[in-house]
Design goal:
The chain has helices at about 1-30, 30-60, 75-100, 110-140, 145-150, 155-185, 185-215, 220-235, 270-285, and strands at about 240-250, 255-260, 290-295. Helix 3 packs antiparallel against helix 7 (about 185-215). The protein is mainly alpha-helical. It folds into 2 domains: about 1-215, Up-down Bundle (Alpha-lytic protease prodomain-like), CATH 1.20.1510; about 220-295, Cation efflux protein, cytoplasmic domain (Alpha-Beta Plaits), CATH 3.30.70. The model has no long low-confidence stretch (mean pLDDT about 85). Strands 1-2-3 form a 3-stranded mixed sheet. It is built from 9 helices and 3 strands; from the N terminus they run ααααααααββαβ.
């Protein structure tokens, strides 16, 4: 979590400064694509603030109303961020692009736009490197996309996707501005805004899909599930592991429920002792499993 907060703060600082310079450059050069990029950076700045809010609220201690804590706050705010990328970033950029393609305006001096784009690529690229390093540290031996799908901490891959989309968008805008002036085709400036908007919609859809899955309650990985079944099944008091249910309450907390069939000759005291021993063995191997409910059942 510390590494993900570092990448969020890095992206926040970069986007806040870049958004202001993009708006100024867009106004001076009369560039719709630069205005769209400014909106993109402003939305990204808001997104990082919401992620930090989600992380902070998810750390609140359990209370009577929320006995399992507030861990899912992070998943909720991550989903909101993915929707904002679509609604504000993508939607407004597409709108700006369509308007300026339908009514192209004369292009102003592109010098300041090139300067701002160069500075933006530098800062966004640095932020992307920080986010990539943080995510690379957490993914272990998994592939990049596999790590995104299996990750239970959306703050890591959200910033990574945002920064990657930002750098890609800057390259699109730079290419279209250059061609617009080279070929004297102002319509390409609007096209750049439209392409950036479509890029953000695609990124938003991917992030919303992953964030929604976490918010709805993803369970533990199959290999972890099999290991826990093995731990419970190995206990001498257990006849059968009937069912195992789990959900991530937060990236650092798992709620687990085991329905076990115990041997018939056991007394209530012996079953309670066995339950305590199974809980302890599971926690030793999987510290993230904070809440373990074991329910005795019959065959």
């Amino acid at each position: 979590m510390a590494s993900s907060k570092k990448s969020i703060y890095s992206a926040l600082g970069a986007n806040l400064l870049i958004a202001l310079t993009k708006f100024i450059a867009g106004y001076i050069s009369n560039s719709a694509s630069m205005i769209a990029e400014g909106i993109h950076s402003l939305v990204d700045t808001t997104n990082q603030l919401l992620l930090l809010l989600g992380i902070r609220r998810s750390k609140r201690a359990p209370d009577a109303a929320h006995p399992f804590g507030y861990g899912k706050e992070l998943y909720f705010w991550s989903f909101i961020v993915s929707i904002l990328i679509f609604g504000l970033g993508g939607g407004i950029s597409i709108y700006q692009g369509i308007i300026h393609m339908a009514n192209p305006e004369p292009l102003g001096d592109p010098t300041i736009s090139y300067l701002v784009l160069a500075i933006s690529v530098l800062f966004e690229g640095a932020s992307l490197v920080v986010a990539a390093k943080a995510f690379n540290f957490t993914r272990g031996e998994m592939g990049w996309w596999e790590a995104v799908v299996k990750s239970k901490d959306p703050s890591t891959f959200l910033v990574l996707f945002e920064d990657a989309a930002a750098v890609t968008g800057l390259l699109i805008v730079a290419s279209c501005i250059f061609l617009a002036h080279k070929l004297n085709l102002p319509i390409l400036d609007g096209l750049a805004s439209l392409l950036v908007g479509l890029l953000l919609v695609v990124v938003s859809a991917l992030l919303a899909r992953e964030s929604r899955s976490l918010l709805m309650g993803e369970g533990i990985a199959p290999e972890t599930k099999n290991s826990i079944v093995h731990i419970a099944g190995q206990h001498t008091s257990v006849e059968q592991v009937k069912q195992i249910l789990s959900t991530y309450q937060s990236p650092d907390e798992v709620i687990l429920m085991l329905i076990l069939v115990f041997r018939e000759q056991l007394t209530t005291a012996q079953i309670n002792t066995a339950i305590d021993e199974i809980r302890e063995r599971i926690r030793e191997q999987f510290p993230l499993v904070k809440f373990i409910i074991i329910q005795p059942a019959t065959l």
